[in-house]
């Protein structure tokens, strides 16, 4: 049975393992190398995720399959200049062998619910340009593109 729940300190090591798998996977994607040094949380991940787990304007959730943690997701609340709030799903990852059974859908639904409860006007999530699977996943969950970031790599 699949489920999604709030991560605890007892989940910290597993969440960090999954986060490292996400980083290794995305590093191979188009846009991944820059993502890894700009958007990805830096090491030590244990400190970063411990702060998120304890934080007030963020949540870390884990997805389970038969009570084994096979996924995680992070949503953070950003204050905007007009005093409104925006939810940002900064990370979501499901182990490849656990994909297609609904764990990711449970996670994204719970993350959106967290952002709704936090009074957010909307929720952003990102996908790298070549990651069609992630784009399709978010579109099935009701997301649509609102901003495209274009990049020009300079020869050095």
Mean pLDDT: 97
Count of distinct strands: 5
Strand content: 25-35%
Q: Count the helices. How many? A: 5
The portion of residues assigned to helices is 25-40%
Structural class: alpha+beta
Strand order of the largest sheet: 1-2-3-4-5
* SSE arrangement, N to C: EHHHEEEHEH
Q: Give the CATH H-level superfamily.
A: Gcn5-related N-acetyltransferase (GNAT)
Biggest sheet architecture:
5 strands, mixed
CA-based shape? globular
- Count of separate structural domains: 1
Low-confidence stretches: none
Notable traits:
about 35% helix, 5 strands, five-stranded mixed sheet, 5 helices, alpha+beta, Aminopeptidase, about 160 residues
